[in-house]
Design brief:
Layout (H helix, E strand, L loop, with lengths): L20 E9 L2 E6 L2 E5 L3 H11 L4 E5 L11 H8 L6 E4 L5 H9 L4 E4 L1 H5 L2 H10 L4 E9 L7 E5 L4 E6 H11 L3 E6 L11 H8 L7 E2 L6 H9 L5 E4 L1 H4 L5 H10 L7
Parallel strand pairs: 1-4, 1-12, 4-5, 5-6, 6-7, 7-10, 11-12
Antiparallel strand pairs: 1-2, 2-3, 7-8, 8-9
Length: 270
């Protein structure tokens, strides 16, 4: 149904006074929602349409859908999966995985997707970000940055692509700044060290990127306790919080997370 993502791509500095968005993430493989640890050891987490409807009812501000096998399997994202989910929800849907051309983006926008997330394709050809932002507006373009610790990098974090399997020798913070300059409206850094561990967001990684740019940053990878969501904002300086495992396996509801954050003084959409 294609609404614009709330606040995505605005000029509010990360960690500002705007309400923090809560974004459940549907990691997709073979038509099902899955969740693993460090992007492997995948477990089935249900039907994407049923999950999407549930999260909307719970008060999710946006929904992310990532086709985690698209790049690895050298194919485009499954358009039908996005269309099925977009057709049943009113909140903005962000789709990523296997998106490498403006044509790919156009096809997703036409079936109701609000914004797209690019990762490997942007690293391979950074001009794609600039072209997409100019064609569709920066609020519809998100660059996902998968990072791993590497002491040889100036920031201590290296960009990895292909579903977290391939390090590319690029400093994650330097890449974040360049993506902002190219016109992306938002950044989605995911720590490969934290993904699926439930040990908390990688706060140094998230904060390093949030403090380097003025566009919103979405914390991702590792949320396992209510406290982790608060830390993502207070210490990670994130403008939005993405999580998968704790929502898919019903550890917490979106509403519980929002009520907890509100009680701790964090502005949220209630």
């Amino acid at each position: 149904m294609g609404q614009d993502p709330a606040n995505a791509g605005g000029d509010t500095p990360a960690g500002g006074d705007s309400p923090v968005r809560i974004i459940p993430c549907l990691d997709m493989k073979d038509g099902r929602v899955v969740k693993g640890v460090h992007f492997v050891a995948l477990r089935d987490a249900g039907d994407p349409v049923e999950n999407a409807l549930y999260y909307q009812q719970q008060g999710a501000d946006q929904l992310a859908m990532l086709d985690i096998a698209a790049t690895v399997e050298n194919r485009k994202t499954r358009l039908e999966w996005a269309e099925q989910v977009a057709s049943v929800i009113d909140i903005p849907l962000v789709v990523g995985g296997g998106i490498s051309t403006l044509t790919d983006m156009e096809a997703l926008f036409q079936v109701g997707v609000a914004a797209v997330s690019v990762n490997s394709a942007a690293v391979a050809r950074p001009e794609l970000v600039k072209e997409a932002a100019e064609a569709y507006g920066r609020e519809r373009i998100i660059v996902a940055i998968d990072g791993k610790r590497n002491a040889a990098m100036p920031s201590g974090f290296e960009v990895v692509v292909s579903g977290g399997q391939k390090p590319v020798g690029l400093d994650a913070v330097e890449w974040a700044r360049r993506c902002e300059d190219l016109g992306t409206g938002e950044l989605l850094p995911t720590s490969m060290d934290g993904d699926g561990t439930l040990a908390g967001y990688d706060l140094p990684f998230t904060r390093a990127i949030a403090e380097a740019v003025r566009i919103p940053v979405i914390a991702s990878g590792g949320a396992g306790a209510l406290e982790h969501f608060y830390e993502g904002v207070a210490e990670g300086k994130a403008s939005a919080l993405l999580a998968a495992s704790v929502f898919h396996f019903r550890t917490f509801t979106v509403r519980q997370v929002k009520e907890y954050l509100a009680a701790r003084g964090v502005p949220v959409f209630l």
